[in-house]
Amino acid sequence: MQLPLVLLLLSLPGCLSIQGPESVRGLEGGSVTVRCDYKPRWETYGKWWCRGAYWELCRTLVRTTGSQLEVKGDRVSIGDNQSHHFLTVTMEKVRQDDTDTYWCGISKSGPDLGAPIRVTIEPEGTLLTTACYPTNGRAGVSSVSYSR
């Protein structure tokens, strides 16, 4: 009996080593923060945030140095909480043309590890609603926000 391809892929080392939300929404002119959780053992590895629908072609916007120090790029910052195994990316002064697929990832020898996140930026004045989502077995809540 053969395992379905999905189960086989999920059983490979490194799969699901990093996870983020499927999608996030933000308001034009505001900021969007994304948290990606990773498994223990990846604490001291460099982390990155890139933009683009295709993994092989995405453009890295910011990356850590393997430490917990926050690194700032152009309207984007990344921090790594190594003791709790998550990285946080904040995109500031977002615009509607920032809507795209992004990836949070871990640099390592061989292929990097990554998780796709769809970021959607809504026009100013849009009401964003609260959503609950599971995060590694814990409940998380995104905030309600709106702009005038």
From TrEMBL:
<dbReference type="InterPro" id="IPR050671">
    <property type="entry name" value="CD300_family_receptors"/>
</dbReference>
<dbReference type="Pfam" id="PF07686">
    <property type="entry name" value="V-set"/>
</dbReference>
<dbReference type="InterPro" id="IPR036179">
    <property type="entry name" value="Ig-like_dom_sf"/>
</dbReference>
<keyword id="KW-0472">Membrane</keyword>
<dbReference type="GO" id="GO:0005886">
    <property type="term" value="C:plasma membrane"/>
</dbReference>
<keyword id="KW-1015">Disulfide bond</keyword>
<dbReference type="InterPro" id="IPR003599">
    <property type="entry name" value="Ig_sub"/>
</dbReference>
<protein>
    <recommendedName>
        <fullName>Ig-like domain-containing protein</fullName>
    </recommendedName>
</protein>
<keyword id="KW-0732">Signal</keyword>
<feature type="signal peptide">
    <location>
        <begin position="1"/>
        <end position="17"/>
    </location>
</feature>
<feature type="domain" description="Ig-like">
    <location>
        <begin position="4"/>
        <end position="120"/>
    </location>
</feature>
<keyword id="KW-0812">Transmembrane</keyword>
<dbReference type="GO" id="GO:0004888">
    <property type="term" value="F:transmembrane signaling receptor activity"/>
</dbReference>
<dbReference type="InterPro" id="IPR013106">
    <property type="entry name" value="Ig_V-set"/>
</dbReference>
<dbReference type="InterPro" id="IPR007110">
    <property type="entry name" value="Ig-like_dom"/>
</dbReference>
<dbReference type="InterPro" id="IPR013783">
    <property type="entry name" value="Ig-like_fold"/>
</dbReference>
